[in-house]
Amino acid sequence: MLNLSCFVALLFLSLNHSISALSCYECESTFPASSICLPTCTTRFVPDSTCVLLRNISLEPSDVGSLRAAHIGDVPTMPNITEKSFVFGEEAVYLNPSAAVGWDWEYGPITYGCDTDNCNHPEDVNRLPNALNARIPNATLERLLLGDLDSSCYVCDTCLDSDVTNTDMSNCTKEPCLNHACGFVATRNSPSSTKQCNAGWHYSSYCMGSREVAQVDMTLIYYIRSKSFYIYQMEAVCLRNDCNNMTTFKQLKDAVTVDPDLTCLIDSSNSSTTTSIRPVTSTTARVTTSTAVGGLTSTTTRQVTGTLTGPTTTQLSTGSGITTVSNIQITTTGSGPEQLFVNTKLFIFVIFFFLFH
Ligand SMILES: *[C@@H]1O[C@H](CO)[C@@H](O)[C@H](O)[C@H]1NC(C)=O
Ligand SMILES: *[C@@H]1O[C@H](CO)[C@@H](O)[C@H](O)[C@H]1NC(C)=O
Ligand SMILES: *[C@@H]1O[C@H](CO)[C@@H](O)[C@H](O)[C@H]1NC(C)=O
Ligand SMILES: *[C@@H]1O[C@H](CO)[C@@H](O)[C@H](O)[C@H]1NC(C)=O
Ligand SMILES: *[C@@H]1O[C@H](CO)[C@@H](O)[C@H](O)[C@H]1NC(C)=O
Ligand SMILES: *[C@@H]1O[C@H](CO)[C@@H](O)[C@H](O)[C@H]1NC(C)=O
């Protein structure tokens, strides 16, 4: 009788919907400038997660570089994503005072997101693109950012819709800004925004405290599967009367293109290797779904194997130089998908054993 109950219960459960837990590497390291040091990592399963690998490497010897592998939920600076396979970064263009250089594009930290088990291996830092290669045509930059600033800049703090359809500045004031620069920042809504603008932009414009070079700084995300991108924040400095207006923002935003070089990034996004756990569903009244599954996920994370010990040497090419990566040491811990599934069954069996006894 007991066995039959269990059998029926298990059969019922395996026909019901499943949730998936994803295993990601977790580790962090900092190092002087670009002498990348790969940290020792562990792995952990988290339901409905995305793995991320963050790289922040500077070519300035006095700076500190960093590398971090994590579950997305543990990285507070990550924006709200709509697809789980992406490259997220910060890029900027500024007018170099040297006419020979002109418009100079720079890139900052980059974050890779993926959703197959252990896809955020720190060793793959070498495969990440340097940048999304965001670009705005030179002519657009010149037209919108350069000119003569002998009078004023707009001062405004408001919400704009997602497409910036309304560019009317009549509710904004103007402020004298002689010999300084005009600026604006537009940010997509986020939980941390000071002003909540629903699905739109929080737009704020001002007179800069000093004379600065014309520039545009952006954080943006490129979704690998849909080959689409999304701008989270745009900050600009322009040097012409009242240039920090909504039209300038809209035209800059609409002129952005990206072209990340993903040739080295092996995207295993098609092969879905995420672990399927058959959870105890809500239809079986006496067992709570979330706690049962949540508890299971953490209890089955065990330290098992140790592999891939260094030292190994690989090379990372950055924008203007080659950096040597040394001393790779990855320790893999955690149980495999099959193990987790077997444990789930065992768990369910135990629950029912107690219920029917
Ligand atoms: C990246 O590193 C630079 C230099 O150490 C630091 O100033 C900056 O805050 C870091 N950025 C992120 C996102 O960690
Ligand atoms: C834009 O300007 C930069 C430098 O000012 C130059 O290197 C680049 O080739 C220009 N791009 C185009 C498409 O003209
Ligand atoms: C200006 O502000 C008023 C009052 O808040 C509002 O009714 C009006 O729609 C605003 N105009 C524009 C163009 O945003
Ligand atoms: C994040 O995105 C989801 C799905 O698009 C949305 O439901 C949620 O409100 C967003 N959260 C924030 C804080 O924007
Ligand atoms: C907005 O700024 C652009 C230059 O960036 C300028 O050509 C335009 O006249 C400005 N519009 C308003 C309403 O000030
Ligand atoms: C992945 O999927 C895309 C379209 O969804 C397809 O073009 C591509 O060939 C697939 N790659 C592999 C390795 O299966």
From TrEMBL:
<feature type="signal peptide">
    <location>
        <begin position="1"/>
        <end position="21"/>
    </location>
</feature>
<keyword id="KW-0732">Signal</keyword>
<protein>
    <recommendedName>
        <fullName>Sodefrin-like factor</fullName>
    </recommendedName>
</protein>
